Task: structure prediction
Amino acid sequence: MRVRMAVTLSLVSCASGATLAACFDLFHSTDDVLTACQIDSAAAGCGLDAGLELCAPTARAARQQAEHACAWLGACDTPLGGDAFGPCMIEGLMAFDCTANPSHRFKGKAADLWACLGTVRSCADVDGCLFPGGREPCGSGQYTACGSPSSGRASNADVRFECQDGGLVGGENCALRGQTCSSGASGALCSGYGAGACPVTGSGCYGTSSIHWCTDGGDVGIDCSSFGTQRCSGFPTVDSGVQWVACVPEVDAGPAATCAPDASATCAGGVALSCPTGFVESLDCTALLGSPAACAASPLAPPFDWTSACTLESSPRCASDSCDAAVLTGCGRGAAFTVDCASQGLGACQLRTTDDGARAACSAP
Result:
């Protein structure tokens, strides 16, 4: 179904100071277009509570679940982009550790994929999660491409895969991070917009959930339907003028802690605190990256990325992926993540050449 962009709501604003470098048309409506969930509420990822069953009972259990999912994903398919072990672990911990990430619990397609990967026991299982529509055919040459859409539920439209000499090297499912696959001049990439370029009307909310955010490298937006309350909105307020857009967070059942909207983060004991939407949000950087120094007070970049303050890149603990027999060490945001491949029922660690350099992965069983 082709989505038609309706006329904007004339909420054009310009951020003051250094918050944004340009004025953006931030709101767009697709209210007259039915979503897949409106057409079929039983479809995968359509329940409002779709991500709640992901929450592990303890932080240790969440880490074990993430290690299992990420080790098997890298072993069975070349770890492209965000599927490399280090970046994968950060996303996996946010998916499974709901205490560390209480404000934007994973929902929708992202929740479905993490639930799928958390229970894999074979490479066939991994392929079923990664390529819902089946493994993609390859032509000659070396290239990356987006998977084929389907009229049914099993679509590979969110999948970015790599081909070499007629064979499928591997792939990554962009929906694990609330994105989709788009094709650009230099190949396929995970993006907020599937058409390969930013919308002609620029950055902002499209419909009720999609954030398109245009940069020199293309659209780096996300789909809020995979997180929190599954809604996108503009802030500080519609009445006072919208300066940025963000995914609306979940808040506690009791009176919500409100705050003046601000697109920056502060740190308290390794926890990033932010308020881009007028409600206090938190993300435990220490739990995600393993260090109390992992929180960096700074503007959110982009302003809808509640995770951007969690980083060790200014004083990295991990410079490059490595292997020590069965022990894999993968880097993500400057932090080191390790796993014993044998403990996961997988083969020895090996370095693999990917489009993002040499990345460590366990061998397939």
